[in-house]
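Researcher: Please predict.
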Amino acid sequence: MSSLLRYKKAGGFSQLLSLVETFGPQKKEKFLEIIEAESPVWAKAIREKMITFERLFSWPEQVVVEVFRQLQPKTMAFALQGLKEDQRAKILAYFSHAEKRRMDDILLESQPKPDEIAATLVKVVEQTRKMLKNRELHAEKFDEALIIPEDFEVKLEEMAAAEQFKHLAGEGDDVIPANTAQPEATAAQPAAQAAAQEATSADIIQLQKKVAQILKENKQLKDEVALLRGKLEQIKKIA
């Protein structure tokens, strides 16, 4: 069964991305391998849009601090414990002495376990994603690759279809053995080859357009079916 089928609807990529971001390192990598086996295009897109702590701390320090300040004090204290020393220093540089003492007091009282720290680090990523979604953070100002275009799922399916077409076309190429005698080149051959390549390119573009149209129509049909199912359920409840 397809792991991606449920996420190919509008908004599905963002849902999948948010899900992957909640996984631990090992589970995350395993899940991405499963996706990549099904669709390298989707796996690549997830890796490009995914928030990691390495990526988070590549942004301007003010942006990172803004994320941490949105956390509850206890969550913030636990999360700071899970950071690398240099990362923690960057955050604490923006805190007052009173705020630092409060963090220390929380840690002395609670003494978080490793799994609690790991859980709060996930919350930092979730908070970051939430702030991006709510436009509290503007990715275009510090990391444009994070931006998810409208109808991204359709675009990914178009790219996947194009890659599949290239793959199938490549498998069908005739391979001429090295020891096979070749006809002598003529002056007309380069022009003929160029014309053939141009015709092939035009065919590929036309096929890609047809695939894109089919995918779009398929998505519309799925949306209509989902709507009709919802109405049917409402009618059943009334009856």
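Model: The CA atoms of residues 138 and 144 lie 9 Å apart.
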